[in-house]
């Protein structure tokens, strides 16, 4: 074994994620796992059978093209036109990736020089910090504060320095469920243009905006078409998170840059699944509406259960996560609370504090995933009622 | 479009691979494409049907564990025992990746500090140079020369400096087909131990050594704890599009890099 520490300093402290710890706890205790964000029901059978046909027809069993199979790139371009009125050239402005995670990593590794600053909402998805660190960038958090988690646009403006290279934005936002408004998007776009910034947008929950709201891609705003790298994926929308099919839509020069690092991260991925997701993206509107309505009902079921159990619930506008505050339960530390929750009532959740650079801002916040079957959410709600007694 | 070029300087020149250019030429001219290395016949039907069953049974349709599903990690460990007499612990010493390409990228991004030197045979697979560059490392080529492309072990020894962090080796070697001999492997292992180097071995052609056998460097004395052994299913089973690779690392330190 070499004398020097194996892991480089940039990645120090990123060794094991909270998800691994909490999933192990769920397994050991038999608790209901509302920690990790993947559904307990697979997506449409027709899409699964599309993957079977691709496998059996020999489509995607060998390396797909580096940009992704043409059928999927065309379907992604058509999806952007159908839902947002955006027009992308499938040959030069669409790149298929191994999920949104690879797209984010590739974007950071392509677009950042060491020392560049990246402004991102906190709490943030843990891969953001790691991807920025691997690229030698510097993370500058913009804290979203309870109860409504709106971004402070003055603070955002003040956070921009001459070293700022890009904004890494996520809306609908995991874990808070915040969805950026038209006014907020406009202000962000104006700032990006004024300060000549790139913006990378993580839009994987684009089809999970509730209560009659809608997702607006930042790239659709004036001045943003040539400075935004728009990222999404199939995993959340079609409930096949294991297939790892994601994509980038952006101007040709930005796609070329992201492709440069992407081709050396995985080269290509998910061969047969690319064909299946091409079909999924063409599902009729009914699918998207029913999916959203179902997840909204699940949000309501779990949010009500959590409220009755004594949590302060920050009802999300989108995503399939619910952020709560446990101070109302007399609790002081989300991490300790989550470690004890399986034993106390047989439910697993994750502490939001691990998604902050300033852990105090999320010290008493706990996240629950609501993307599980109604019966599972009902049982979890019932178990959580034991907390107060 | 912002004024600064989109791509960072370390990746300058890596934009389009020669494979893309030549494949486009094949398509445009209708020529037989012997440029890119993937088979024109899929692997065994029984393996393809195993994938169909997994899909229909709902195994793997949602996120698998970060280390890979236990069934595959156990199978990789058994493969190492069956062919090489090695005994990795499937729970802590086997990591499943999105092909060998991701494994190499993750290894470079995890193990290198900016400025670290990496010695690699040249000619090399193009992802090596890019991965070393993304990690801020410095590539030090050891040229394999025609007609037999044997590594010059004296030159290798001379190439090691105090800044050398690791050797990135590939045997059987793409593109020359060189397979390292037991004597060469011993010399490399002794050098790695003497100079306290890590070694990352790309062994994706492990089942394509003709007129001889592949020996993993990790099986040599002193090498188990300093070798990251990488292989994949694509070449061996002729399903390159599935992108299943694996690592037998000595440490759990970079599990989370499996994007």
From TrEMBL, chain A:
It is found in: Cytoplasm. Residues 31-366 form the Aminotransferase class I/classII large domain. Pathway: Amino-acid biosynthesis; L-lysine biosynthesis via DAP pathway; LL-2,6-diaminopimelate from (S)-tetrahydrodipicolinate (succinylase route): step 2/3. The keyword Isomerase does not apply. It is an enzyme of class 2 (transferase). One of its GO terms (cellular component) is cytoplasm. Keywords: Amino-acid biosynthesis, Aminotransferase, Cytoplasm, Pyridoxal phosphate, Transferase. Its main location: cytoplasm. InterPro entries: Aminotransferase_I/II_large, Kynurenine-oxoglutarate_AT, PyrdxlP-dep_Trfase, PyrdxlP-dep_Trfase_major, PyrdxlP-dep_Trfase_small. GO terms for biological process: amino acid biosynthetic process. The keyword Calcium does not apply. It catalyses: N-succinyl-(2S,6S)-2,6-diaminopimelate + 2-oxoglutarate = (S)-2-succinylamino-6-oxoheptanedioate + L-glutamate. Its EC number is 2.6.1.17. GO terms for molecular function: kynurenine-oxoglutarate transaminase activity; pyridoxal phosphate binding; succinyldiaminopimelate transaminase activity. Its cofactor is pyridoxal 5'-phosphate. Belongs to the class-III pyridoxal-phosphate-dependent aminotransferase family. NCBIfam families: PRK07777.1, PRK09082.1. Involved in the lysine biosynthetic pathways. It catalyzes the transfer of an amino group from L-glutamate to N-succinyl-2-l-amino-6-oxoheptanedioate (N-succinyl-2-l-amino-6-ketopimelate) in a PLP-dependent reaction, yielding as products N-succinyl-l-2,6-diaminoheptanedioate (N-succinyl-diaminopimelate) and 2-oxoglutarate. Homodimer. This is Probable N-succinyldiaminopimelate aminotransferase DapC. It comes from Actinacidiphila bryophytorum.
From TrEMBL, chain B:
It comes from the Bacteria. Its cofactor is pyridoxal 5'-phosphate. Residues 31-247 form the Aminotransferase class I/classII large domain. Pfam families: Aminotran_1_2 (PF00155). Keywords: Aminotransferase, Pyridoxal phosphate, Transferase. The keyword Transferase applies. CDD domains: AAT_like (cd00609). InterPro entries: Aminotransferase_I/II_large (IPR004839), Kynurenine-oxoglutarate_AT (IPR051326), PyrdxlP-dep_Trfase (IPR015424), PyrdxlP-dep_Trfase_major (IPR015421), PyrdxlP-dep_Trfase_small (IPR015422). Gene3D superfamilies: Aspartate Aminotransferase, domain 1, Type I PLP-dependent aspartate aminotransferase-like (Major domain). GO terms for molecular function: kynurenine-oxoglutarate transaminase activity; pyridoxal phosphate binding. Belongs to the class-I pyridoxal-phosphate-dependent aminotransferase family. This is N-succinyldiaminopimelate aminotransferase. It comes from Actinacidiphila bryophytorum.
């Amino acid at each position: 074994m070499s004398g020097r520490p194996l892991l480089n300093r940039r990645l120090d402290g990123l060794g094991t994620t909270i998800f691994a710890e909490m999933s192990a706890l769920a397994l050991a205790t038999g608790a209901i796992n509302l920690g990790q964000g993947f559904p307990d029901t697979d997506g449409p059978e027709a899409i699964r059978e599309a993957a079977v046909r691709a496998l059996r027809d020999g489509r995607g069993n060998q390396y797909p093209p580096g940009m992704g199979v043409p059928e999927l790139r065309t379907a992604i371009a058509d999806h952007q036109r159908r839902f947002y009125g955006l027009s992308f050239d499938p040959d030069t402005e669409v790149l298929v990736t191994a999920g949104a995670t690879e797209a984010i990593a590739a974007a950071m590794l392509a677009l950042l020089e060491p020392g560049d600053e990246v402004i991102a909402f906190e709490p943030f998805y843990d891969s953001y910090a790691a991807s920025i660190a691997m690229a030698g960038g510097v993370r500058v958090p913009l804290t979203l504060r309870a109860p409504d988690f709106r971004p402070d646009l003055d603070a955002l403006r003040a956070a921009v320095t001459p070293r700022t290279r890009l904004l890494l934005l996520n809306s609908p936002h995991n874990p808070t469920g915040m969805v950026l408004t038209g006014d907020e998007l406009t202000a962000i776009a104006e700032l990006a243009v004024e300060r000549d910034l790139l913006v990378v947008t993580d839009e994987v929950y684009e089809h999970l905006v509730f209560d009659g709201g809608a997702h607006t891609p930042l790239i659709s705003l004036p001045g943003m078409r040539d400075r935004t790298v728009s990222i999404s994926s199939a995993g959340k929308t079609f409930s096949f998170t294991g297939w790892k099919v994601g994509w980038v839509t952006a101007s040709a020069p930005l796609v070329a840059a992201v492709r440069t690092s992407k081709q050396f991260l995985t080269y290509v991925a998910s061969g047969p699944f690319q064909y299946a997701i091409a079909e999924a993206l063409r599902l009729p509107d009914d699918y998207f509406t029913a999916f959203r309505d179902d997840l909204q009902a699940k949000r309501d079921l779990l949010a009500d259960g959590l409220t009755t159990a004594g949590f302060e619930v920050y009802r999300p506008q989108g995503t399939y996560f619910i952020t709560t505050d446990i101070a109302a339960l007399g609790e002081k530390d989300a991490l300790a609370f989550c470690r004890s929750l399986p034993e106390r009532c047989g439910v697993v959740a994750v502490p939001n504090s691990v998604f902050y650079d300033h852990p105090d801002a999320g010290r008493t916040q706990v996240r629950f995933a609501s993307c599980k079957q109604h019966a599972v959410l009902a049982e979890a709600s019932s178990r959580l009622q034991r907390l107060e007694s | 479009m912002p004024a600064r070029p989109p791509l960072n300087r370390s990746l300058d020149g890596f934009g389009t691979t020669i494979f893309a250019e030549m494949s486009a030429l094949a398509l445009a001219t209708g020529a037989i494409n012997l440029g890119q290395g993937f088979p024109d016949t899929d692997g065994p039907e029984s393996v393809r049907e195993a994938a169909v069953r997994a899909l229909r049974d709902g195994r793997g349709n949602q996120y698998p564990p970060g280390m890979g599903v236990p069934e595959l990690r156990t199978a990789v460990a058994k493969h190492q025992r069956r062919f090489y007499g090695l005994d990795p612990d499937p729970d802590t010493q086997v990591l499943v990746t999105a092909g060998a390409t991701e494994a190499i990228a993750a290894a470079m991004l995890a193990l290198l500090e900016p400025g670290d030197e990496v010695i690699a045979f040249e000619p090399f697979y193009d992802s090596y140079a890019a991965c070393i560059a993304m990690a801020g490392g410095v590539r030090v080529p050891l040229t394999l020369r025609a007609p037999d492309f044997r590594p010059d072990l004296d030159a290798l020894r001379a190439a090691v400096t105090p800044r050398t962090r690791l050797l990135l080796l590939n045997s059987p070697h793409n593109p020359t087909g060189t397979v390292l001999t037991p004597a060469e492997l011993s010399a490399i292992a002794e050098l790695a131990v003497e100079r306290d180097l890590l070694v990352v071995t790309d062994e994706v052609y492990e089942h394509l050594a003709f007129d001889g056998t592949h020996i993993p460097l990790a099986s040599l004395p002193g090498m188990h704890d300093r070798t990251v052994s990488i292989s994949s299913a694509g070449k061996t089973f002729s399903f390159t599009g599935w992108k299943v690779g694996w690592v037998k690392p000595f440490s759990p330190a970079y599990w989370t890099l499996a994007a």
